[in-house]
Amino acid sequence: MYDLKDIVEMKKPHACQTNRWEIIRMGADIKIRCLKCGQMVMMPRREFEKKMKKILKKAEKE
């Protein structure tokens, strides 16, 4: 499963031609930030789970 600060790959690339995103907020909605251009997108958890392809890097535990 995914957690805060994980790097994920989405099914479709962003307008800046990358599909690497960092999860920056979790709750009923998930907020992600594009790692190339910094654009932030918020979407419902169900929509995020449909659009996410895989987890690229897990966040380091503190």
Q: β content, as a range?
A: 35-45%
User: In DSSP terms, counting alpha (H) and pi (I) runs of 4 or more, how many helices?
Assistant: 1
- Low-pLDDT runs: none
Tell me the overall shape: globular
Strand element count:
5
What's the helix-strand series? EEEEHE
Write down the Rg: 11 Å
Mean pLDDT: 94
- Assembly type: single chain
Structural class, from helix and strand content? Answer: mainly beta
Q: Percent helix among the residues?
A: 10-25%
Count of individual domains: 1
**Order of strands across the main sheet:** 4-3-2-1-5
Write the layout of secondary structure elements.
Elements: E1 7-10, E2 20-25, E3 29-34, E4 40-44, H1 45-51, E5 52-57
Antiparallel strand pairs: 1-2, 1-5, 2-3, 3-4
Pfam family, one: DUF951
Protein name: DUF951 domain-containing protein
Explain what you see.
- This protein is mainly beta.
- It has one domain (7-57).
- It is 11% helix and 44% strand.
- It is built from one helix and five strands.
- The model has no long low-confidence stretch (mean pLDDT 94).
In short:
The protein is built from one helix and five strands, in the order E-E-E-E-H-E. With 62 residues, the chain is mainly β. The protein has a five-stranded antiparallel β-sheet with strand order 4-3-2-1-5.
Summarize this structure as a short list of keywords or feature phrases.
62 residues, mainly beta, five-stranded antiparallel beta sheet, 5 strands, globular
